[in-house]
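Dear colleagues,

As part of the handover before I leave the project, I'm documenting each prediction I ran so the next person doesn't have to rerun anything. This entry is a single chain, and its sequence is reproduced below.
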Amino acid sequence: MPEKAGIIPVTDTPYFRAQAYNNAWANYRLLSACAELSSEELSAQRTNFFPTIIQTLNHNLTVDWYYVSALEGNCIGAAAYDPENPYQSLADIEKEQRAVDRRLIAVCEGLNEARLPNMIDMPRNGWIQTEPFSRILLHLLQHQIHHRGQVHAMLAGTNVAPPQLDEFFLGHKREQALREQDFKALKFDEGKIWR
């Protein structure tokens, strides 16, 4: 694959597939913990960039809409953020986050090495940002990790124990047993992730 200036060739499509599944699993675990909070607790002011849990979850969702649509080849632009906090119900956020997580998995399931360096146009406020597909995907994954960590920290100020989110899919049967119930709920197949 020819290298373009400033572009690091990232060609490991199984890596991206595993990351997309892990992203969905972490979102599931975090939203399951948040579901134990009352609507008042979800909207209570806390110390964070976005001052409430519900606003932070909305932010993660709308940013996913933006970047996943770009990765799918039809970036929705500013429409992703209009309104900035589309849902006040955790059930609605959970439903929509699950849907966009599935879309990201589908994108990563369809990846091949030729697609990763493709340049993607993303409309911004008055300009177009063009980035390689692989960089957008890496950015999206990092963004999710960052803001999930913020919600995790905010949960620590409630009566709900923050879920363990620093896990990846280690192969030992004891590790697999720890995620078995989550995978059943998500309908994930361990073998499909690593094929």
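The CA atoms of residues 36 and 160 lie 7 Å apart. The first strand starts at residue 119 and ends at 123.

All the best with the project,
I.
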